[in-house]
Amino acid sequence: MNTESLAALFKTLSEPVRLRIIHLLLAKGELCVCDLVDTLKLSQSVVSRHLAYLRNNGLVTTRREGVWVHYKTVDDCCNALFEHIRQCGCENSEMQADLKQLSAVKQRCC
Hints:
alpha+beta; Arc Repressor Mutant, subunit A; 65% helix; globular
């Protein structure tokens, strides 16, 4: 990975909302946009903008199911870095609250 690519990766992950999204995707595997909107308590446009940024920089991939778009992290992408995010998320109160909120959301979302 060249210096420019490495800088782009860290720039992509420098936004707290994107880190929270990555943590949720790592914990749950695949999530619908509506799951993320309800969990993060952000507007659909804000969440979609962050997801597009992650997708455009090769960290997440999409799957369409009817009107719903599901996101997941790219397989074998940034394994060591993603593992670090996963571990830090276990100690981060905001990320742990996101996981609890997601469990409640999954009961009523698509």
